[in-house]
Design a protein that fits this description.
about 160 residues, mainly alpha, 5 helices
């Protein structure tokens, strides 16, 4: 082979290698761009998931408040200490306590500190209603009225997402 032909063939091979290196660089840049877009989408999805979880926690708490209030409907009329309850009435009165306990569980699962503070005040008010009912200072109907009034007047329960 002639030296000129070898030289030309070497230059052609070098040119093709440079083209492949250029195409590889373009593919690497495109891959990096796609990775960046994917990371941005993942971050957006994570933030959206956190917001949805926060909304769900608030909804669970509000549902627990309603369940607690409604538990008085089937509860014994009075829990006065001098009244002897049947075993069925004792079970029904425990449901009221279980609903209050479930409300505290929902409260403890809330992650938004500001909303948790507002929900904690609602819980304390509901716990006070439960205490008065258990001590016999008010009957089930009065407890329902107090809880319903609280729910109708409490800004957190009326518009928790503001």
């Amino acid at each position: 082979m002639d030296a000129d032909i070898i030289s030309i063939e070497t230059m052609i091979a070098t040119k093709q290698a440079a083209q492949w290196a250029f195409y590889s660089m373009l593919a690497a840049v495109a891959s990096a761009g796609i990775t960046g877009v994917t990371a941005w989408i993942a971050k957006s999805a994570l933030n959206s998931w956190r917001e949805q979880e926060s909304v769900q926690e608030i909804k669970n708490f509000i549902n627990a408040v309603y369940a607690f209030t409604n538990s008085f409907i089937d509860a014994p009329e009075s829990m006065a200490p001098h009244i002897k309850l049947s075993s069925q009435d004792e079970k029904k009165s425990l449901i009221v306590f279980e609903k209050l306990t479930f409300m505290s569980v929902c409260l403890s699962q809330m992650t938004n500190a500001q909303k948790k503070a507002l929900a904690a005040q609602v819980y304390l008010d509901m716990a006070e209603i439960n205490k008065k009912y258990r001590e016999g200072k008010q009957d089930a109907l009065e407890s329902i009225e107090m809880a319903s009034t609280l729910m109708a007047e409490n800004e957190f329960l009326l518009d928790p997402f503001s």
